[in-house]
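User: Could you check the structure of this?
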Amino acid sequence: MPPVKKPAKKPAPKHVPLPAPGKKGGEVQIAKTLNRKPSRKMAREMLILETRRLRAVFSEIAERYIAEMEARIASVVHAIETNPHPPDKINAMLKTVRGLAVKPQKGRRKDLARIEKTTETLSKALEE
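Assistant: Sure, the predicted structure tokens are below.
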């Protein structure tokens, strides 16, 4: 009797992904999985991380702003100390500084803007 040939097994093509555990056949939709909304717990954790990062960025920006404004004010002070200026200019600059109305205890942005504007005014007056 001639030997019986067994049919050869065809291997599955390598480009077709295996079905996910618990699913019957079909491709795994990774893109769909990644685009899915995160769970409530995961969304909460992500929000906490992003908010902490926001706080750190805010602190960095505030520190840089403070350093820049302090440097501008220091340069105005240095210019007043080192260069002689006419009394009229000094009186006008003094009036500008005394006219500044801020409430530091409130910590308002508009007070920072007023200080910045006053510093710019003094700097321009010194250049003239």
